Amino acid sequence: MRRGLRVAGRWLIAIAMLPALAACQRRVPAVRVCADPNNLPFSNDRGEGFENKIAELLAADRHARVEYTWWAQRRGFVRNTLSAGACDIVVGIPSGTDVVLTTRPYYRSTYVFVWRADRGLGLRSLDDPRLRQLRIGVQMIGDDSNNTPPAHALASRGLRQNIVGYPVYGDYSQPHPLSPIVDAVAHGSIDAAVVWGPEAGYFARHAAVAMAMAPVTPQVDRTLPFAFDISMGVRKRDTRSRDELNGFLARRRAEIDRILSAFGVPRADAPRS
Fold first, then answer.
1. Alpha carbons 223 and 190: distance in angstroms, whole number
2. DSSP secondary structure letters along 184-238
3. Is the pLDDT reported for residue 7 higher than 70?
4. Position 45 confidence tier, pLDDT thresholds 50, 70, 90
5. Which candidate, 185, 190, 175, 265, places its Cα nearest to that of 227?
């Protein structure tokens, strides 16, 4: 009987403390992040992407917690998250994107060639004559006038018949929408692919066979850029948040670089002036 009373007493105490615990949690400041729930290697709702890890680092830097607003990172992403006031920070966005105010770049990546290591292709240039004998995977947007740099560059060289297109957003119903283009190289259904660096590096590391990669050179093909700076983004007039994030990026640069390296993100040097 006494034991039962003690157990009941503990439960009553715990229940009585719940409002205080909830109030304490509310007092902990939140870093409000706009993110995609199914977009590895960048982010997912289980916190497994490198942008999740950078958001956690930012929260630790501020002695805060991360609070996410989830939205598929496609058309309307910024409008329905950041611009709507639902969240305050996009962790990764191309520098200078005009719908947001961007920080200084915290990494620069590039499109890369990907092939099975046992093929020994050693691809580097879009002018490599061997490309005319290869099936080449390319990420496609679908709107030909606004397609990806590799799609335009290969088509301009008369290689349309060699291109195998993969949707740039992938099949969102699957757990890894961005992986099929690298998976196709690993399985041998295509010979090589030209893939945005962070996606290539991550999925090549997780492929069933050994994979090889090399950056597309040069970084600018005629007028098409193949390397891009990536920043954090805030609302257009939020210069205070932009400046605070620039301070964080400077203070924690080494840790951010370690996160990027852990996920296999290839980095590109900034172009020389």
1. 27
2. HHHHTSSSEEEEEHHHHHHHHHTSSS-EEEEE-BSSEETTEE-EEEEEEEE-TT-
3. no
4. very high
5. 265
